[in-house]
Write a structure and sequence with these properties.
The protein is α/β, with parallel strands linked by helices. It has a domain at 2-188 and 223-250 and 290-311: Rossmann fold (3-Layer(aba) Sandwich). Helices cover 43% and strands 17% of the residues. The strands form three sheets. A seven-stranded parallel sheet has the order 3-2-1-4-5-6-10, sandwiched between helices. A three-stranded mixed sheet has the order 7-9-11. Helix 4 packs parallel to helix 5, helix 6 (196-205) runs parallel beside helix 8 (255-270) and helix 8 crosses helix 10. The longest helix has 23 residues, at 95-117. The radius of gyration is 20 Å and the shape is globular. 44% of the residues are buried. Bound molecules: nicotinamide-adenine-dinucleotide (NAD) and 2'deoxy-thymidine-5'-diphospho-alpha-D-glucose.
């Protein structure tokens, strides 16, 4: 059996990647390494946790000795690295966590792969999952391409940019067989409700204010999470070593327009008059260094590997709202405990 290490597999995107790999490739044994931070949740993988080709490993990628031993024990053939601190707002209040996990953690994985594979790179792959935020911010026009110069602005995006550079450096210097992808904003089931869409669904449900940063004019390019997982599978198996692929939905929305669509859909699902929850919209102090617009050109991925998003946004948002409202226990579990503290620290003074 091929042993594949997925890091961050208990998180939002990682859980969709693990599920896809475990179900699609019975000939693989998928090891899910996760620290189970506030964003990691084994509930996300309940449906596959008993499969014989799946194992969960609790651990921290910042612990270099532990990572080395794990590679030595299992002799992984491939790595799909998603573990990260991923929320921009938290990176503004606590940058150090981001430096440690996103940079030091990534280098620990690179070192382990390099030292255990010992230049016998036949059939090996180190796939690093990254973000479009490394490219910075666009004005009203234009797109991010694979060769767009890096220009990160938040501690989160700077830490991801740094990790991307280090992954490329290990390819150029040590020949490590790496691949990188940079994706736009994901939405869908199992996203922790600190990010815009699940946070707003939860707040609408509880008739709580909807904190719109600034004037709500920032633009994001939204992709359904399962389409990202499918792209990762395609790139991991068919992408050329050393290459970068942009992944995006060609689905740009101004925040305020997206929020109004979301409100309408949630209201309908809750049996309220569609749009009535717009009264909850509350404009709050903008995010520091808030990037205006992201937009991905994913032509390379479409032309070279034949990937396209499978879902139109209207369908994706319906599925997403339905999932959160049908899984209120999941939402209630992740918003109990420390969530209230996080929420008041992040929003009370805005
Ligand atoms: P997430 O925050 O939902 O999940 C991150 C996972 O990593 C969690 O399960 C967490 O427990 C784990 N983790 C964190 N620190 C760890 C550590 N030190 N050791 C081991 N595990 C650790 O994140 P996500 O939204 O699923 O993002 C996954 C990856 O995709 C990240 O690398 C992120 O930068 C990238 N990405 C995310 C998006 C998006 O829209 N969410 C878009 C593009 C790229
Ligand atoms: O572009 C890819 C990135 O998308 C990923 O790399 C990140 O991991 C992921 O978190 C996401 O980053 P964003 O900062 O774009 O996502 P977030 O959901 O936090 O915010 C989306 C937009 O909504 C952004 O312009 C800020 C705004 N916003 C967000 C929150 C949480 C609000 O107006 N109010 C809010 O309460």
């Amino acid at each position: 059996m091929k042993k594949i290490l997925v890091t961050g597999g208990a998180g939002f995107i990682g859980s969709h990647v693990v599920r896809l790999l475990v179900n699609k490739y019975p000939e693989y044994h998928v090891f899910n390494l996760d620290k189970l931070t506030y964003a990691g949740n084994l509930e996300n993988l309940k449906d596959i946790e008993k499969k014989s080709n799946y194992s969960f490993v609790l651990g921290d990628i910042v612990d270099g000795d532990f990572i080395h031993e794990l590679f030595q024990t299992h002799q992984f053939e491939g790595v799909i690295h998603l573990a990260a601190e991923s929320h921009v707002d938290r990176s503004i209040t606590n940058p150090m966590e981001f430096i440690m996990t996103n940079i030091v953690g990534t280098v620990n994985l690179l070192n382990a792969a390099k030292n255990i594979w010992k230049e016998n790179y036949d059939g090996k792959r180190f796939y690093h999952v990254s973000t479009d935020e490394v490219y910075g911010s666009l004005g009203d026009t234009g797109y991010f391409y694979e060769d767009t110069a890096y220009d990160p602005h938040s501690p989160y995006s700077a830490s991801k940019a740094s990790s991307d550079h280090l992954v490329r450096a290990y390819h150029d210097t040590f020949g490590l067989p790496i691949i990188i992808s940079n994706c736009s904003n994901n939405y869908g089931p199992n996203q922790f409700p600190e990010k815009l869409i699940p946070l707003f669904i939860n707040n609408i449900r509880h008739n709580k204010p909807l904190p719109v940063y600034g004037e709500g004019l920032n633009v994001r390019d939204w992709l359904y999470v399962v389409d990202h997982a499918v792209a990762i599978d395609e790139i991991y198996h068919k992408g050329k070593i050393g290459e970068t692929f942009n992944i995006g939905g060609h689905n740009e929305w101004k925040n305020i327009d997206l929020i109004k669509v979301l409100i309408k859909v949630v209201d309908e699902h809750l049996g309220r008059e569609a749009g009535s929850s717009e009264s909850l919209i509350t404009y709050v102090t903008d995010r520091a260094g808030h990037d205006l617009r992201y937009a991905i050109d994913s032509t390379k991925l479409q032309e070279e590997l034949g990937w396209t998003p499978s879902l139109q946004f209207e369908e994706g948002i319906q599925k997403t709202v339905a999932w959160y409202l049908e899984n209120q226990q999941w939402l209630d579990n992740v918003t109990s405990g420390n969530y209230q503290k996080y929420y008041s620290e992040m929003y009370d003074k805005r």
